[in-house]
């Protein structure tokens, strides 16, 4: 029978529809105003006592609470409106010590049953929710030349300790080291040494002006490694910094070869954000004080992971984080986790001296953080907030010196590979980071964000309504079919975007608007074809079948090319424009489904399987 | 005889019309260039919202006396909203400084956004954008050549270049800001215009194979007539949503909406006149379309479902 639907097709389409509606649903629940509390100690999680404290603090100031959720490391306090949110933040910031990060947030109010199947609303881009966007560039030349500098001092030290005589060493360009020798055999010895300990260099020999040269050039592979390393190092540092800012859902991500994007939704104070992001962590290596040393030459510091434990350290610093050239986690022969540390030349020789005279004493690695501190003072009867940076020192490792060592050593006695990896991360974060600078900066005020959302939604609604009316007037019953397909298309598009948690931006909304306008095209093509086939004398049933069948090739070709343009746009565009490319591409895919499969089903449902003398197609 | 409107009879007039538009666009692009937005030039931009509409000249003077030089002050959408573009380097606090300088006279205002784009980033984006456009044109040409025939791909790409140049020309002549969203719109125009052209080409191909006794000019006329209602309906629905976007979408998306509005209008026109004109000018014949059919399996498939 022509134009009838097999049962399985109903099932398939119904399943897709139900899934679409379910996954698009979370977008209808408005976000709650919330205050988010996290501990600045990454290991500490919040519990019931904190929750009770929040309740009593807010009750005291009679701020109405919508709900409090304990979500792992985070306490989410939901409130009824923006004013109460601000009031609650003020109350909670005074109530909790500075060990806790209190941040404003917009919390999705997706019901639990939707959450349990992984549904959630679309993410909003910065242009819609307000906030700060930074683009930072890592100075790769500096990173390379720093590394070359460190290699130079390390190599010199090693040549001296191996008693290989060299005359001079100089840097050529940013990736080459040229070492001069008086005797050829010295050069060969050195070349041998380099081949063993400095594998990241290619070696070449050169004889001129009665001297013998060893030319070491960094291999392309190692240049790339250094660049990746510089980026990774900065990413780690930036993430640490950003976490301290107490921003809900920050984004720190590599972009291209040498750039890093930082997005801080909801933040308006660019200056503070930049000051904190720009700071790098640092490290100090210090000896544990001998029993009975005077308090003038010592300092008592807590452990980072165990705030209640502390140790007394000497004030003298052996080396600082800027002397660390590398740190990575690995295992010893027995499979115990450890961290390998490499120091630069100066750091190495100081370490050598210290370890020679301090065997079996304990050495501590001290982590230094810059923490913003809010000081409240009452000026003229008003509470004034002042921000100040405070240096906080804590011990991340305390280990016994087992032997004499110089620029390479290991920290052992770690509990787990995870701990080793974390320690290596911290050590690297404190070491010489390649300098970064800001190349792009955008601040979007919260009012502008909301304005953009409202304008975007309004244009979707108006555009949608106009298309619906037009199609209805022009195509009658078939207009209704196209309109149902179009409505489902928008729902599916939203569902798809929510499922892949794509970010919705203002151009993204424009993409949805454009999709609404263009998605009817496939149906228009089909309907035009049906009309023609009717005019050619086919019966209504034949015309429907021929119309859907013959229009397909044109629809397919036409959509593929738009998809090509969208994909290129995705590759070329950044930020908000990428959002447009995403909605446009997804819109094309969903519109193919709704305009061809779904509208065919509805048409068959209305006209199929019976005798039809006339089609209502305008 | 199949119904036909004599589109191609007026093809000389259309060619002259297109030529005028193209020459005007290219001339303006050569003389005025494009007024590139912050995304492409790099620089600093601050947007503030006043409680009541300020006098722009006064705002300018106020900023000049506060020590800012070489700046552009303009309204952004509503007349209470003021956009200040500074050529000087960016400092962390420029947004706060500018709004403080403006608020010094006691006006109520709010900082809406502050943006800074490094010169190098802007330059890269310019290169990437141009490259993206060329890439899109190239791939599309290839696709059409494979799916249809070489003469069609020249016609399609000719129409696309025509559309892109005219949209760019409009932005140049009217001194509209060309920013990243406009570039996005331009790529969408390429997609849209191509969509249109392909639907028409698809029909031309089909008719060349089906109608035995007709000159190429008649075949094209018949095809254009048959696809006319579809071309118009799709253009109208697209224009409707774009109008909505243009009117209520807000200032940030205004350039995007304008570029697409012009692009869709020009694209509709070009799919009727430019692409078909090129086909005729290149002397398309029935043989062009029948020859590859025997060789290419894919083409054969397309033929199978035709009577």
At CATH level 2, the architecture of the largest domain in chain A is: Up-down Bundle
* Oligomeric state, counting identical vs distinct chains: heterodimer
Overall number of strands of chain B: 6
What coarse outline of chain A follows from CA principal-axis ratios? globular
**Alpha carbon gap, first and last residue of chain A:** 26 Å
Q: Any idea how many domains of chain B?
A: 2
Widest sheet: strand ordering of chain A: 2-3-1-4
Radius of gyration of chain A: 33 Å
CATH architecture of the largest domain in chain B: Up-down Bundle
Question: On the 0-100 scale, what is the average pLDDT of chain B?
Answer: 83
Look at the helices and sheets of chain A and give the structural class: alpha+beta
Number of helical runs of chain B?
A: 12
Describe the structure.
The complex is a heterodimer of chains A (618) and B (307). Chain A is α+β, with helices and mostly antiparallel strands and 618 residues long. Chain A folds into four domains: 7-26 and 445-607, Multidrug efflux transporter AcrB transmembrane domain (Multidrug efflux transporter AcrB transmembrane fold, Up-down Bundle), CATH 1.20.1640; 32-107, 2-Layer Sandwich (Alpha-Beta Plaits), CATH 3.30.70; 141-222, Gyrase A, domain 2 (2-Layer Sandwich), CATH 3.30.1360; 280-441, Gyrase A, domain 2, CATH 3.30.1360.200. Chain A has 15 helices and 23 strands. Chain A has helices at 7-24, 48-60, 82-95, 112-115, 126-129, 140-161, 184-197, 220-245, 270-278, 345-357, 417-430, 446-499, 506-535, 540-572, 575-607, and strands at 32-39, 65-71, 74-79, 100-107, 123-124, 131-138, 168-172, 176-181, 201-208, 211-218, 251-255, 259-265, 282-287, 298-302, 310-314, 319-320, 324-331, 337-343, 362-379, 382-400, 408-411, 436-444, 503-504. In chain A, the strands form seven sheets. In chain A, strands 2-3-1-4 form a four-stranded antiparallel sheet, with helices on one face. Chain A is globular. With 307 residues, chain B is of the alpha+beta class. Chain B has two domains: 8-36 and 121-304, Multidrug efflux transporter AcrB transmembrane fold (Up-down Bundle); 43-117, Alpha-Beta Plaits (2-Layer Sandwich), CATH 3.30.70.3400. Helices cover 67% and strands 12% of the residues of chain B. Chain B has helices at residues 11-31, 38-41, 56-65, 94-103, 119-147, 150-173, 180-210, 216-248, 254-272, 274-281, 286-295, 297-304, and strands at residues 35-36, 43-50, 71-76, 78-86, 109-117, 177-178. Chain B has a four-stranded antiparallel sheet. In chain B, strands 1-6 form a two-stranded parallel sheet. In chain B, strand 3 and strand 4 (78-86) form a beta hairpin. In chain B, helix 6 packs across helix 10, helix 7 (180-210) packs antiparallel against helix 8 (216-248) and helix 9 runs parallel beside helix 10. The radius of gyration of chain B is 25 Å and the shape is elongated. The chains are: A alpha+beta (618), B alpha+beta (307). At the A-B interface, helix 9, strand 22, helix 12, helix 13 and helix 14 of A face strand 5, helix 5, helix 7, helix 8 and helix 9 of B.
């Amino acid at each position: 029978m022509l134009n009838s639907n097999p049962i399985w097709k109903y099932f398939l389409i119904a399943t897709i529809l139900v899934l679409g509606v379910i996954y698009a649903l979370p977008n209808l629940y408005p976000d709650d105003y919330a205050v988010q509390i996290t501990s600045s100690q990454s290991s500490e999680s919040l519990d019931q006592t904190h929750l009770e404290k929040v309740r009593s603090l807010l009750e005291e100031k009679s701020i109405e609470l919508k709900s409090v959720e304990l979500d792992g490391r985070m306490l989410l306090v939901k409130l009824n409106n923006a004013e109460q949110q601000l009031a609650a933040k003020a109350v909670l910031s005074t109530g909790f010590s500075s060990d806790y990060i209190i941040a404003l947030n917009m919390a999705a109010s997706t019901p639990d049953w939707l959450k349990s199947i992984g549904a959630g609303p679309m993410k909003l881009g910065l242009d819609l929710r307000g906030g700060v966007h930074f683009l930072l560039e890592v100075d790769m030349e500096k990173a390379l030349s720093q590394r070359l500098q460190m290699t130079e001092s390390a190599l010199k030290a090693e040549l001296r300790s191996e008693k290989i005589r060299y005359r001079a060493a100089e840097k050529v360009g940013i990736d080459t080291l040229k070492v001069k020798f008086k005797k050829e055999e010295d050069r060969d010895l050195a070349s041998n040494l380099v081949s063993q300990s400095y594998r990241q260099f290619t070696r070449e020999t050169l004889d001129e002006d009665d001297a013998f040269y060893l030319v070491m050039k960094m291999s392309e592979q190692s240049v790339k490694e250094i660049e990746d390393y510089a980026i990774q190092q900065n990413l780690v540092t930036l993430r640490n910094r950003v976490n301290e800012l107490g921003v809900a859902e920050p984004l720190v991500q590599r972009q291209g070869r040498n750039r890093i994007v930082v997005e801080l939704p909801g933040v308006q104070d660019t200056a503070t954000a930049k000051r904190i992001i720009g700071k790098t962590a640092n490290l100090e290596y210090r000896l544990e004080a001998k029993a009975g040393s005077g308090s003038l030459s010592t300092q008592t510091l807590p452990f980072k992971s165990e705030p209640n434990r502390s140790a007394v350290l000497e004030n003298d610093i052996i080396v600082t984080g800027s002397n660390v050239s590398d740190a990575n986690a690995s295992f010893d022969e027995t499979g115990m986790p450890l961290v390998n540390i490499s120091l630069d030349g100066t750091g190495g020789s100081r370490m050598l001296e210290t370890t020679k005279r301090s065997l079996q004493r304990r050495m501590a690695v001290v982590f230094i953080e810059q923490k913003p501190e809010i000081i409240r003072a009452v000026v003229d009867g008003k509470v004034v907030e002042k921000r100040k940076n405070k240096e906080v020192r804590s011990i991340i490792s305390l280990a016994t010196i087992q032997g004499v060592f110089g620029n390479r050593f290991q920290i052992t006695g770690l509990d787990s590979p995870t701990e080793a990896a974390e320690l290596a991360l911290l050590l690297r974060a404190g070491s010489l980071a390649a300098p970064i600078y800001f190349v792009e900066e955008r601040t979007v005020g919260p009012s502008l964000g909301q304005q953009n959302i409202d304008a975007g939604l309004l244009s979707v609604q108006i555009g949608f309504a106009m298309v619906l009316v037009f199609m209805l007037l022009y195509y009658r019953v078939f207009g209704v079919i196209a309109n149902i397909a179009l409505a489902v298309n928008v729902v599916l598009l939203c569902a798809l975007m929510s499922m892949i948690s794509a970010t919705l931006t203002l151009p993204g909304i424009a993409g949805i608007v454009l999709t609404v306008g263009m998605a009817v095209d496939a149906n228009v093509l089909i309907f035009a074809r049906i009309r023609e086939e009717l005019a050619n004398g086919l019966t209504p049933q034949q015309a429907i079948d021929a119309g859907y069948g013959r229009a397909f090739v044109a629809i397919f070709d036409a959509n593929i090319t738009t998809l090509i343009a969208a994909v290129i746009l995705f590759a070329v565009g950044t930020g908000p424009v990428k959002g447009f490319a995403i909605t446009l591409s997804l819109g094309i895919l969903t519109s193919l489904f709704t305009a061809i499969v779904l509208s065919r089903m509805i048409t068959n449902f209305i006209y199929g399987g019976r005798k039809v003398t006339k089609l209502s197609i305008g | 005889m199949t119904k036909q409107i004599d589109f191609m009879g007026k093809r000389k007039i259309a060619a002259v019309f297109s030529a005028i538009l193209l020459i005007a666009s290219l001339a303006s692009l050569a003389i005025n260039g494009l007024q590139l937005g912050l995304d492409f030039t790099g620089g600093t931009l601050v947007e503030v919202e006043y409680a009541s509409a300020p006098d722009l000249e006064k705002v300018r003077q106020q900023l000049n006396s506060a020590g800012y030089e070489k700046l552009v002050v303009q309204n952004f959408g509503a007349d209470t909203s003021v956009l200040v573009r500074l050529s000087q380097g960016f400092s962390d606090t420029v947004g706060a400084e500018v709004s403080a300088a403006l608020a010094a006279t006691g006006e109520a205002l709010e900082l809406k956004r502050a943006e800074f784009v490094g010169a190098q980033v802007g330059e890269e984006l310019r290169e990437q954008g141009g490259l993206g456009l060329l890439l899109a044109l190239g791939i599309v040409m290839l696709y059409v050549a494979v799916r249809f025939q070489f003469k069609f791909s020249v016609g399609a790409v000719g129409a696309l270049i025509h559309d892109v140049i005219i949209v760019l020309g409009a932005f140049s002549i009217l001194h509209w800001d060309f920013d990243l969203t406009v570039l996005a719109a331009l790529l969408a125009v390429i997609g849209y215009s191509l969509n249109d052209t392909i639907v028409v080409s698809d029909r031309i191909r089909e008719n060349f194979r089906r109608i035995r006794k007709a000159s190429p000019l008649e075949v094209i006329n018949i095809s254009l007539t048959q696809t006319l209602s579809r071309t118009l309906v799709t253009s109208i629905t697209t224009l409707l949503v774009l109008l909505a976007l243009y009117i209520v979408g807000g200032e940030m998306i205004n350039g995007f909406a304008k570029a697409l509005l012009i692009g869709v209008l020009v694209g509709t026109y070009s799919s009727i006149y430019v692409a078909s004109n090129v086909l005729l000018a290149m002397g398309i014949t029935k043989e062009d379309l029948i020859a590859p059919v025997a060789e290419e399996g894919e083409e054969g498939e397309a033929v199978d479902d035709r009577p």
